[in-house]
Each structure stands twice: as C-alpha cells, then as structure tokens.
Design brief:
mainly beta, UDP N-Acetylglucosamine Acyltransferase, domain 1, 2 domains, 12-stranded parallel sheet, 11-stranded parallel sheet, 2 helices
Length: about 280
C-alpha cells in the first residue's frame, strides 16, 4: 500500500481499522478470521484492563499445565513470565514466579513463594518455600531451601543440599555435598561429599577483583569458617570451627586457626549512663 495510516483525528491516534479501508481501496483481499477466545479481541486502555487480561493469560497457561499433568496447588496463583517446561508429576505450590526459560524435570516439587529465572532443574529435586534461583543448573535429587538463593553461574550436582539462608554465586557444589545453614559460597568449586558448616563464607572479593576457592572431595568445614581466596582445601581435609584459612589446607589433615581463649579476672561490663 502506498498510503500509510494517519492520525488525523481528535485523539491523534493511529487506528488499525483504517487499513481495511486502505486494503479495499487497493484491491487487497480482506478476509474474516475467528478468534479462539473472546479475550483475543479485547483492548487495553487502562491498568485495570491490563491486569484483567494478564489474569486471563495466566489462567490459559495454568490450564495448559494442568492438561499436561502438572499439579498446581491453586491455578489462580501462579505467574509464568516466559516459558515453563515441565516433566511428569511436577508439583507447583502457590505464588511461584517463573521467568525466562525454566525447565522442571520429572517429580520436581516447587514450594510456595519461590522465584525461578532461567533455571534447569533435574528430576526428583525439591525446592522448599521462598527460595530464589537465577541462571542456575540444578541436578537430580537435590534439596534447596527454604530461603535459599542460587545466583547466576551456580551449578548443583546430583544429591546436593542447599539449606536455609544459604547463598551461592558462580559456584559448583559437587555430588552429595551440603551447605545446610547460613553460608555464602561465591566463586568456588566444591567437590563431592563436602560438608560446609553453618556461618561459613568464601571471602572471594578483595575490594577490586574476585578470586576462586577450591574445595576438593570429602572435606569437612567446621562452622564459622572463612576461606580467604584464592585458597585450596585438599581432599579429605578437616577445618576446625572458627578457622580463617589463608593458605592451602593439606589433604587428610586437621587445620585450625583461632585465637587462644583467655579469661580476664575482675572485668566488668560498662554501665549505661542514665540521661536526666
């Protein structure tokens, strides 16, 4: 068509319906197409209409998931903001959000309030409530959460456990390894059958650059340990609770660094000064 749509009207809007008149004028065939649902014909001219149509869209997605055999605790309380592919016998609880491309394998369970973005989860994995996963790969039969966070670049191998208030970033957690409580594992490669105690952190940032921590197989890391990267913990090593590791921990040995315990006789707590 040589002519273009004009906005010569009081609202200064371009009307799509004008192209029908233009098509007839140019001897272009005009045919009717029947929508599959009434919602396809609806316009959006307000936030209310936008919200209503979004709920219709989400209801259509929920129905398709149900027809595939996915169990939804409440089809009215799920948001899919991308593509969600599910295997057999997947369970999704209320108020979960899926963004980008998300794939859930067979028998995966996602509990209430979880947010997954660009994540692949293998079969049998259970994700406990209020966990956040982004740009991560999760193996089979893993346990995640509650309140866990997998940041971009995280990979969990089969059977790994990531517990409450544990954060991983750009790290791999090996087969059967566990970080069950209050830990931060960033820029780290963790081997198989490693236990990471509560309060453990990898000190990966020196203020300018990121550095990597290597933890080999069968390592036991006691609670409240700091791993100052770059550093390596060799196979079968044990780190005592409260250790600050700045040098390589040898294989099969106990490494510990903590200040000597002392008691100061006669010491008294300071008293609060009253305000008059």
């Amino acid at each position: 068509m040589a002519q273009s749509v004009e906005n010569d009207n009081a609202q200064k809007e371009f009307y799509l319906t004008d192209i029908i008149v233009m098509a007839v004028r140019d001897n272009v065939t005009v045919a009717a197409v029947h929508p599959s649902g009434q919602w396809e014909t609806l316009g959006i001219n307000s936030k209310v209409q936008l919200a209503e149509l979004e709920r219709t869209h989400q209801a259509n997605i929920a129905r398709a998931l149900l027809e595939q055999g996915v169990t939804l605790a409440d089809p009215a309380r799920i948001d899919v903001r991308g593509t969600l592919n599910c295997g057999q016998d997947v369970f999704i609880d209320i108020n979960c959000i899926f963004e980008g491309n998300v794939t859930l394998g067979d028998n995966v369970s996602v509990s209430m309030g979880c947010a997954l973005k660009n994540v692949t989860v293998a079969s049998g994995t259970q994700i406990a409530p209020y966990s956040v996963l982004e740009d991560a790969i999760v193996g089979a039969d893993c346990r995640i959460g509650p309140y866990a966070r997998l940041r971009p670049g995280t990979k969990l191998c089969d059977g790994a456990h990531v517990g409450n208030f544990v954060e991983l970033k750009n790290s791999e957690l090996g087969k059967g390894s566990k970080a069950n409580h209050l830990a931060y594992v960033g820029d780290a490669t963790v081997g198989s059958n490693v236990n990471i105690g509560a309060g453990t952190i990898t000190c990966n940032y020196d203020g300018a650059n990121k550095h990597r921590t290597i933890i080999e197989d069968d390592v036991f890391i006691g609670s409240d340990t700091q791993l100052v990267a770059p550093v390596t913990v060799r196979k079968g090593a044990t780190l005592g609770a409260g250790t600050t590791l700045t040098q390589e921990a040898p294989a099969g040995e106990l490494t510990i660094s903590r200040a000597s315990q002392i008691t100061i006789p006669g010491w008294k707590r300071p008293e609060k000064i009253s305000k008059k």
